[in-house]
Structure prediction request, 372 residues.
Amino acid sequence: MRLLIAPDKFKGSLSALAAAEAIERGFRSVFANAVVDIAPIADGGEGFAEALAAALGAQWIQLASEDANGRAITARYAWVEGEHLAVIEMSEASGQWRIQPEDRDPLLASTHGTGILLRDAIARGARKILIGLGGSATTDGGIGIARALGYRFLNEDRGGFQAVPGTLDLLHRIERPANLALPEIIAACDVQNPLLGERGTARVYSPQKGANPHTVEALETMMRRLADVSTTSLGCDFRNTPGAGAAGGLGFGLLTFCDAKIQPGFDIVAETIHLDQRIAAADWVITGEGRLDDQTLDGKGPAGIAARARAAGKRVIGFAGAVTEAAERSQLFDALVPIADRPLALEEAMREAPLLLERAAARTARLLAKFQ
Prediction:
């Protein structure tokens, strides 16, 4: 038996790699000689770098950076030496998880720490950089990254100032650094929001980052100012590009300041880890995540895995902490397996997730063995 084990994370309980390892243990308890290919997956959110690092055998580069509030931290990104490929998660330095609720200030929060990681990867000789957008603590339109790369933000008197979201009303001109050489940069993004408007980054996402109604409107005004000045100074206008509003407008910033392209996170992962070839080599494809529901079906990793497996004529099983009726109706999966084996409170289920998933995989393997 040849198995491709390609789950997403079980959020709050298991990384994608840990989930894959639990599934492998369960199946090997029945099929000890199975040929197992582990391919943790992710979309553009948290777990993106870890999934690719595991699949590509990357090393982790650690360096001094800063969080969204400018405090000193140690952060990391994945590096594939043979390909000169860097994989960065913006949430690693600029993520919400690093900032306590009482310390959140959307008018000051910056992506500068992510820019430090990006700058280091460029200096290391990266030919291609993948940046996962998700889990952001910021609504700065990518100006923090731009400052780290040497862009200058100038006021009406052509003087420099410390550009953060709350000071962008001073912005009159942006100057690109001379001789800025950038590799190919691709932003992994799983949302389609533009920068501005009712579906824009300020109104949709900044309340999750500590913005009250007054701050939301201030951020909307500042992001519009940034887009207007970017148009006049740099000759480009990406405010309406799908994904520009991702990660507090970082999608816009990467398009504007880094000549980046935006692609769906799952598609990037699938291409990078040669997913279609690995599916073709498998007898069974195993995937899963913490909850299989209608959001899963809207382009998330397990649905993408299942669709590609179906197209290749492969059988596919999905494991999850919870399986909704919408997922069951999708007919994407040959079987959907909730991992709980008894009534459990949510906290208990999350705490026991590794063992529950291993046991569910073993039960499934025993069932499959009866039909071999």
